[in-house]
Amino acid sequence: MTEVELSETLAAARARLAAALRDAGRDEHAAQLLAVSKTKPASMIREAYRHGQRDFGENYLQEALHKQAELADLTDIVWHFIGPLQSNKTRFVAECFDWVHSIDRKKIAQRLSEQRPAHLPALNVCLQVNVSGEASKSGATFEQLDALASAVVDMPRLALRGLMAIPAPATTLAEQRMPLARLRQALETLREHYPQAPLDTLSMGMSDDLEAAVAEGATLVRLGTAIFGARQ
Ligand SMILES: *Cc1c(COP(=O)(O)O)cnc(C)c1O
């Protein structure tokens, strides 16, 4: 993708998000764009940054650390770790990211809290929910969610910001909305149970279901393909 194309896809993604918010009767600033840059070079992140994008999502730790080193001069990038996280990788994530969207068990959260450096603010975290109940997918079940949230709320170096989901592909808007509506309801329940937590984030909506997610209250939409083009 050339620089011109990237400025165009980014503008189109912003317009698409703005239109979805308008259609949903929501404030134009009610949801933000998270640019998912996995498998894409640091030069493309730099270009998106030049066009005003600040939040970037990465899935693979080694790849992300290389890009972060190349982009160290862009000090106000907000880095989001959105991929599956194994416990032997938590230290670098705790040290090098601002957000983690993929918390699905207590042990990972515990390690991130213990390993978050004292000079950094609390790590923003979302709990990932396996909304479609797919056996192959990561994420806590809806049934496990309250116990997990209850543990994370008490972890001193984590800020429990909300929920994240990657639903199974669906074809119609109504089908897409159903699991996302459940995620929104689950967040509302957690907000009632844990009023002390900053639970303000619904991380949902990707290139294929952005409109459904925004209609169901997404606050952070994670767009990869729509901004950076197809991945290999
Ligand atoms: C890759 C990825 C995305 C972006 O998906 P697109 O369909 O390319 O927009 C969003 N969220 C997560 C967790 C991902 O792994």
Automatic annotation (TrEMBL):
Which terms are listed as keywords in the entry? Pyridoxal phosphate
Cite the NCBIfam families for this sequence. YggS family pyridoxal phosphate-dependent enzyme (TIGR00044)
Give the record's family classification. Answer: Belongs to the pyridoxal phosphate-binding protein YggS/PROSC family.
Instruction: Enumerate the InterPro entries for this protein.
Output: Ala_racemase_N, PLP-binding_barrel, PyrdxlP_homeostasis
- What is the role of the protein in this entry? Pyridoxal 5'-phosphate (PLP)-binding protein, which is involved in PLP homeostasis.
Chain positions with N6-(pyridoxal phosphate)lysine modification? 38
What is the official name of this protein in its record?
Answer: Pyridoxal phosphate homeostasis protein
Has the keyword Signal been applied to this entry? no
| Stretches assigned to the Alanine racemase N-terminal domain | 27-231
